[in-house]
């Protein structure tokens, strides 16, 4: 899933190397961080959907498709991710283990958390869920991007289109998200103050968290953990 921050254009992370690193390098530690980040991402998505104050662009689309098809939110998330992965083929993008786990773990987690977390109607609790969901989403995004085990489906689409077209990551990312936001809104997805807050906050949050969790090869060594 994405990440939705424009890492390549963020000065705070410009010195970080985020290129994929083989899973055989410290696999236990890195896989643990990957799984933890993806589980947290799915939980934060569920929190935002239950807040009811607006979603990020991709989740506006997911919610709209959920309303249209009657499938669960997590199922739609997985289907959309697979569809995006098919777009990788002409872009010559290569998935990693992080890409596969991104599709599966986020979809399962978001449905599980939504099953136990009721939709909120009290404004105070809605705001708590919204703010906490955005902050945790930023931490989760930094965690699984920083572990360098393969991009999420939407991240790969963004970077692949940027490489193929020669356009900046910022421009490609904006074009994709405006498109999916418009499509999701037309399908009945929730657009609101949360959508705006997410757009403004997620980049700085990832930029702040990434240096704390990114895997640095200079301190890593092959082996089991």
Jot down its keywords.
mainly alpha; single chain; disordered C terminus; 68% helix; 225 residues
SSE diagram, text form:
Blueprint: H1 27-51, H2 57-69, H3 73-91, H4 97-116, H5 123-146, H6 153-165, H7 169-186, H8 193-213
Written description of the protein model:
α1 runs antiparallel to α5. The protein is mostly helical and 225 residues long. Helix content is 68%, strand content 0%. The protein is built from 8 helices and no strands.
State which percent range the strand residues make up. Answer: under 5%
Given the C-alpha coordinates, what overall shape results?
A: globular
Distinct helical segment count = 8
Q: What order do the helices and strands follow?
A: HHHHHHHH
TL;DR of this structure?
With 225 residues, the chain is mostly helical. It has helices at 27-51, 57-69, 73-91, 97-116, 123-146, 153-165, 169-186, 193-213.
């Amino acid at each position: 899933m994405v990440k939705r921050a424009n890492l390549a254009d963020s000065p705070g992370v410009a010195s970080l190397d985020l290129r994929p690193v083989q899973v055989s390098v410290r696999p236990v530690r890195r896989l643990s961080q990957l799984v933890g980040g993806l589980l947290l991402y799915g939980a934060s998505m569920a929190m935002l959907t239950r807040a009811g104050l607006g979603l990020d662009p991709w989740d506006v689309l997911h919610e709209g498709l959920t309303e249209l098809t009657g499938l669960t939110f997590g199922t739609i998330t997985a289907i959309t991710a697979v569809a995006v992965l098919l777009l990788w083929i002409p872009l010559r993008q290569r998935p990693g283990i992080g890409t596969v786990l991104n599709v599966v773990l986020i979809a399962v987690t978001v449905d599980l958390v939504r099953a136990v977390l009721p939709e909120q109607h009290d404004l105070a609790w809605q705001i708590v869920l919204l703010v906490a969901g955005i902050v945790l989403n930023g931490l989760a995004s930094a965690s699984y991007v920083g572990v360098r085990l393969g991009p999420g489906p939407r991240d790969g689409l963004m970077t692949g289109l940027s490489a193929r077209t020669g356009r900046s990551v910022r421009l490609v990312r904006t074009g994709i998200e405006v498109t999916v936001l418009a499509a999701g809104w037309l399908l009945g997805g929730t657009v609101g103050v949360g959508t705006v807050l997410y757009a403004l906050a997620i980049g700085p949050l990832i930029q702040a968290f990434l240096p704390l969790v990114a895997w640095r090869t200079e301190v890593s060594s092959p082996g089991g953990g």
